[in-house]
Amino acid sequence: MQTNSEKLLTILMAYYKDLVKKQWWHNTNLSYDPSVPGEFTAVMIGWIGNEVPSVGEIDDKMLSKLEWACSNRVIDQGWLGEHECEVCNSHTDRGEILIVYNNTMYVAPRILLHYITAHSYLPPGEFLNAVDKISGHEI
């Protein structure tokens, strides 16, 4: 059970259509890589709001790579608090992940893993390809 203070820090997630570009910023002190610019144009992934826009299955190898990314490619704005899943209202998480591939900067909420495992959300193939290609994780 959340305290009142924790409830105040749990916010509804913004909705962005997958692959839409948006100006994004983050606190470089809370980044996996402080050399990532504080502001950049991001390609948004997984900001689904209260409906799952694309349903499908992800194999175990890709799920493992996404789990790795959600632990090792974290960026955070530092003041937004936790995001609550608007589909089931039973899971919270905080922060975002940044996947950089072919000069494209994909930003997804860390709650992405919950959307995939609990609600069968299927991110766009372009993003999954980028996750598959990032260095630092070998299966």
Give a brief description:
With 139 residues, the protein is α/β, with parallel strands linked by helices. It contains 4 helices and 8 strands.
Q: What topology does this entry show?
A:
Blueprint: H1 4-9, E1 10-12, E2 21-25, E3 39-44, H2 60-72, E4 74-75, E5 82-84, E6 92-93, E7 96-101, E8 104-109, H3 112-119, H4 125-133
Parallel strand pairs: 1-5, 3-8
Antiparallel strand pairs: 2-3, 4-7, 5-6, 7-8
What does this structure look like?
This protein is of the alpha/beta class and 139 residues long. It has one domain. Helix content is 26%, strand content 24%. The protein has four helices and eight strands, in the order H-E-E-E-H-E-E-E-E-E-H-H. The protein has a five-stranded mixed sheet with strand order 2-3-8-7-4. A three-stranded mixed sheet has the order 1-5-6. A hairpin with a 7-residue loop joins strand 5 and strand 6. The longest helix is centred in the middle third of the chain and has 13 residues. The protein is globular, with a radius of gyration of 14 Å. The N and C termini lie far apart (37 Å).
The DSSP helix count reads: 4
Largest sheet: 5 strands, mixed
Let me know the average pLDDT.
Answer: 88
Order of helices and strands: HEEEHEEEEEHH
The count of domains is 1
What percentage of amino acids are in beta strands? Answer: 15-25%
Q: Distance between termini?
A: 37 Å
The helix content is 25-40%
**Unreliable residue stretches:** 4-10
Q: Which secondary-structure class do the elements indicate? A: alpha/beta
**What's the arrangement of strands in the largest beta sheet?**
2-3-8-7-4
Radius of gyration: 14 Å
Overall shape:
globular
Total number of strands = 8
